[in-house]
């Protein structure tokens, strides 16, 4: 009789243990809902080939995706971070598919998610921070905060699928572009060198993809200088572009970027970007997703249907300055 009681007690304890263990078991794979996304590519311009994506190698590129629960107060607690998706070619925009080992699923309790994405993945750190340093090889950093330019990228698990059925990303540039031209009408001077100097305090910055805020990074020992030389001179008798590839610069730093033009070792003139004016006397600026053109006039002196696109660069205008 005692043996029977002991057996019954052990069986009961085993059942309790099994119930307890069930609470910590992962959700069965057949019960999980994968995150499926696509991009609104109807209004996206500027990139038709995968090879033009930031830091693409041999027609292959990647984006990183970060998510938090929509109910969370801020981005300090993440649902997942740095999940990688591969970029592929598509009829319109780009196709994306989770990289091996990076598949992501909706929360099993139906909580909604807010998501952001960025490329290249090399600029990302833990969480939502991107570290960017200016140099001749600074990448064209793109970030997707929204699905349409205004609405955050959100969704949630709903039954056996997701709501909405497609999560849209709209990628945008977070850096500004700068092009410099020389119009040399002088027969006395020859512009042999153009130097673009960025103050060291605006050479390194951190961007938070969650809050869209810029913060100062650790400044290097000296300014970052981009130097362009031409023995025969720039713009002799015509207007000539100095930097064929536009420079990528941080928005709002126009007062700390100096343009210097030389004849040999002699400095002919020097201007800050915000000292250039357009036809309406508006000062030049560096704006995210836009290209600023300065003219120096020298005269005698396993995801389903995951696709993405990128908004193109808009010309901000031409800003002139006479020497």
Describe it.
It is a single chain. The protein is mostly beta strands. The protein has one helix spanning 2-22; strands at residues 37-39, 61-69, 80-89, 94-98, 112-119, 129-133, 142-146, 153-158, 161-163, 167-173, 176-184, 193-198, 204-208, 213-216, 224-229, 239-241, 247-249, 257-263, 266-272, 290-298, 306-308, 314-322. Strands 1, 2, 3, 4, 5, 7, 8, 9, 10 and 21 form a ten-stranded mixed sheet that branches. It is elongated. Residues 1-28, 39-46 and 302-307 have low confidence and may be disordered.
Question: What is the element layout, followed by pairings?
Answer:
Layout: H1 2-22, E1 37-39, E2 61-69, E3 80-89, E4 94-98, E5 112-119, E6 129-133, E7 142-146, E8 153-158, E9 161-163, E10 167-173, E11 176-184, E12 193-198, E13 204-208, E14 213-216, E15 224-229, E16 239-241, E17 247-249, E18 257-263, E19 266-272, E20 290-298, E21 306-308, E22 314-322
Parallel strand pairs: 1-10, 11-20, 20-22
Antiparallel strand pairs: 2-3, 2-5, 3-4, 4-21, 5-7, 5-8, 6-13, 7-10, 8-9, 11-16, 11-17, 12-15, 12-18, 13-14, 18-19
């Amino acid at each position: 009789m005692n043996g029977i009681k002991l057996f019954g007690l052990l069986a009961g304890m085993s059942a309790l243990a099994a119930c307890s263990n069930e609470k910590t078991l992962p959700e069965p794979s057949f019960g999980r809902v994968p995150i499926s996304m696509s991009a609104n590519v109807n209004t996206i311009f500027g990139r038709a080939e995968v090879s033009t994506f930031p830091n693409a190698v041999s027609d292959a590129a990647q984006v990183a995706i970060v998510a938090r629960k929509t109910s969370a107060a801020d981005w300090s607690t993440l649902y997942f971070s740095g999940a990688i998706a591969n970029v592929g070619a598509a009829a319109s925009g780009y196709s994306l598919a989770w990289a091996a080992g990076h598949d992501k699923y909706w929360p099993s309790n139906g909580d909604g998610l807010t998501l952001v994405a960025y490329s290249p993945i090399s600029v990302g750190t833990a969480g939502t921070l991107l570290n960017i340093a200016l140099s001749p090889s600074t990448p064209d950093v793109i970030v997707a905060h929204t699905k349409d330019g205004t609405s955050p990228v959100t969704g949630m698990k709903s039954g056996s699928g997701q709501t909405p059925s497609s999560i849209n990303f709209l990628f945008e540039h977070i850096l500004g572009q700068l092009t410099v031209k020389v119009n040399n009408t002088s027969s006395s001077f020859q512009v042999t060198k153009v130097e673009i100097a960025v103050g060291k305090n605006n050479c390194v910055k951190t961007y938070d993809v969650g809050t869209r805020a810029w913060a100062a990074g650790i400044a290097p020992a000296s300014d970052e200088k981009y130097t362009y030389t031409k023995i025969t001179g720039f713009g002799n008798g015509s207007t000539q572009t100095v930097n064929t590839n536009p420079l990528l610069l941080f928005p709002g730093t126009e007062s700390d970027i100096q343009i210097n033009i030389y004849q040999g070792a002699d400095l002919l003139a020097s201007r800050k970007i915000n000292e250039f004016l357009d036809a309406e006397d508006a000062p030049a600026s560096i704006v995210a997703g836009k290209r600023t053109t300065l003219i120096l006039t020298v005269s005698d002196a396993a995801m389903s249907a995951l696709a993405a696109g990128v908004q193109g660069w808009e010309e901000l205008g031409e800003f002139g300055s006479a020497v």
